[in-house]
Design goal:
β2, α12 and β3 form a beta-alpha-beta unit. This protein has 2 domains: 3-203, no CATH class; 232-255 and 270-389, 3-Layer(aba) Sandwich (Alkaline Phosphatase, subunit A). The chain is mainly α. 28% of the residues are buried. The chain has a 4-stranded parallel β-sheet with strand order 1-4-2-3, with helices on both faces. The protein has helices at 3-43, 47-68, 71-96, 102-106, 110-119, 123-144, 151-171, 185-203, 278-287, 301-305, 313-319, 337-343, 352-355, 363-377; strands at residues 232-237, 323-327, 348-350, 383-389. The chain has 14 helices and 4 strands.
């Protein structure tokens, strides 16, 4: 073959090889985007939610592109974040019947992580395995990805995506009950992030007046009872409701006895949380304060208050010589219940593990535990025992 033809042939073969290599790089860079579209089709429902997903996906990619400039690596990291978010959201929904919210990221604490790893003991191995597999893939993509994108263009894309998310969130506001649907994981997280950051900038964690004329009086540090103090048993009967308040509902004979005291009188006590999170009621009763002051952050009230609210019913009773006990039917790390209740004055906190519960226990289990506790401790002085019942709360498919 003449030298000129040989040169052209070799050059053509080299060009074809380069073209195939570039095509492969382009395909690898595009693959995470197609996977993300598949996740959107499987988990997002509604035009505004899918639009929010696409904007969140664009924001993630542009953020990483502005840092790394590599489209394949950026798309891979973005896909990993979306996949983890969807899995964690589905995991949370299985346990709490609510999907992941942006506030979960803002109010993350040791108790929440401990709760997650307690109810799923094998999760730590899954995390280690995912990291072990993800790091080599990341290094391969880093070497393989030869394309580069301008940082200014990526930054502009990120800003445009944020503007789009703000527009969608304001045009179609996210309703609180959407978290109970069990889907729309990415769009819900992104839209709740816009709402939460807006509220945080506007009001802070609490909705309060700039100036208040009244002040809480300092707690009285002395207590001198004039007579022997009785034991106090406070029962938190979750999801129990006197249906007679609804007109036209027939009830069986003797139904009302459940809501009357030992002296046959019925006393009403207004608290927050009917039809909603029972920890609102827990916060009301134990701290003597309103969860509504926290606005959009009220859902996390016990987590925010843990270690910060140091007054309330248990503390007041301790100053009068009471021993304070709490019997809690779930893991103490749930919503930081253990940390919160110890903060407001419980000397002894027994959660599901300490009580030896097995799945859903009937009310009798906790009443018996309280009776045994009183029998053991009553000689040491007056007792305040907070008994939290939860059998009514759980789905009624367990006898």
């Amino acid at each position: 073959m003449p030298p000129s033809l040989s040169f052209l042939s070799n050059r053509s073969a080299t060009a074809n090889a380069v073209s195939r290599r570039d095509a492969l790089r382009i395909a690898v860079a595009l693959l995470p985007h197609f996977v993300a579209l598949g996740i959107m089709a499987a988990t997002e429902y509604g035009l505004e939610r899918r639009l929010a997903f696409l904007l969140a996906w664009t924001l993630l990619n542009c953020f990483w592109l502005a840092l790394l400039r590599r489209p394949a690596v950026s798309a891979g990291i973005s896909l990993a974040i979306v996949a983890v978010l969807v899995l964690l959201s589905e995991l949370k929904f299985r346990v709490l019947l609510m999907t992941v919210n942006f506030l979960d990221l803002m109010v993350i604490d040791q108790d929440t992580i401990a709760f997650l790893f307690t109810i799923f003991p094998g999760l730590n191995w899954i995390v280690f395995a995912a990291l072990g597999a993800g790091i080599p893939v990341f290094l391969v993509l880093w070497r393989f990805d030869s394309f580069r994108t301008p940082r200014m263009l990526s930054a502009a894309g990120a800003v445009a995506s944020i503007a789009g998310l703000i527009g969608v969130s304001h045009a179609v506001p996210m309703e609180p009950y959407e978290a109970f649907y069990g889907n729309n994981h990415v769009s819900g997280f992104a839209r709740s992030g816009i709402d939460a950051i807006t509220d945080l900038i506007t009001n802070g964690f609490m909705e309060s007046d700039a100036v208040a004329a009244d002040r809480l009086k300092s707690a009285d540090l002395t207590c001198q009872p004039a007579h022997k103090l009785p034991h106090i048993l406070l029962v938190h009967d979750e999801s129990s409701f006197d249906i007679r308040r609804a007109p036209g509902v027939k009830v069986p004979p003797g139904y009302g006895a459940h809501f009357r005291s030992f002296d046959d009188k019925q006393r009403n006590f207004i608290v927050e949380g009917a039809g909603g999170p029972s920890w609102y009621t827990e916060y009301n009763v134990l701290a003597g304060l309103s969860a509504r002051s926290f606005g959009r952050f009220a859902y996390f009230v016990t987590r925010i208050a843990a270690g910060r609210v140091e007054r309330g019913l248990p503390h007041a009773l301790r100053r009068c010589g009471y021993q304070t006990f709490s019997l809690y039917p779930a893991f103490g790390a749930f919503m930081s219940a253990g940390s919160f209740q110890k903060t407001v004055g419980f000397q002894n906190f027994y959660d599901a593990t300490a009580l030896g519960t097995s799945d859903v226990e009937p009310d009798q289990f906790y009443y018996d535990a309280a009776a045994r506790m009183i029998e053991r401790q009553r000689s040491k002085g007056p007792m305040f025992v907070y008994v939290y019942l939860a059998a009514n709360h759980f789905p009624w498919d367990i006898r």
